[in-house]
Amino acid sequence: MIPARPYAFAIDRLRKAGLRPTRQRLALLRLMFDGGDRHVTAEQLHAEALAAKLRVSLATVYNTLNQFTAAGLLREVVVEAGRSYFDTNTSDHHHFFFEASGRLQDIPGADLKVSDLPPPPAGTTVSRVDVIVRVKSPDNN
Fold first, then answer.
1. What pLDDT is recorded for position 6?
2. CA distance 106 to 39
3. What per-residue string of b and e applies to 19-53 under the rule 16 or more CB within 10 Å gives b?
């Protein structure tokens, strides 16, 4: 059996998303997806890239994450103004947000029911409902 090229999965994923497989996109995609589903900020991914000896600026990381999100490879989770996480799990699901640590944890979509939504504005439809449940431990008032 012929072994697969190390970047074959990443190249295929980028091409299917309509993105050119540049060196930086390939490297960042592998950092994001090689460990299974995860939630990372641009700053966290930038630190991982630097630790992996990848020469990439924080601006490039932000641009790449936004491109991946627009292409449907990632989902952006905004927990507060100016604070976003990028989620490799693009399925229908929600999140617990641990306020003290800043950690996100998935809530399966089927585990949460949202009802009594107001009607959307005229000429629009609801495409998705995202719920973030903020949690804190009793000792973290």
1. 59
2. 9
3. bebeebbbbbbbbbbeeeebbbbbebbbebbeeee
Query: Would 64 be classed as within a structural domain?
Result: yes
| Segments of the chain assigned E as strands | 39-40, 75-80, 83-87, 93-98, 103-108, 132-135
CATH code at position 79: 1.10.10.10
For the full predicted model, state whether its pTM sits above 0.90. no
Amino acid at 119: P
Mapping DSSP to helix (H, G, I), strand (E, B) and coil, where does residue 92 land?
Answer: coil
80 with 96, same domain: the answer is: no
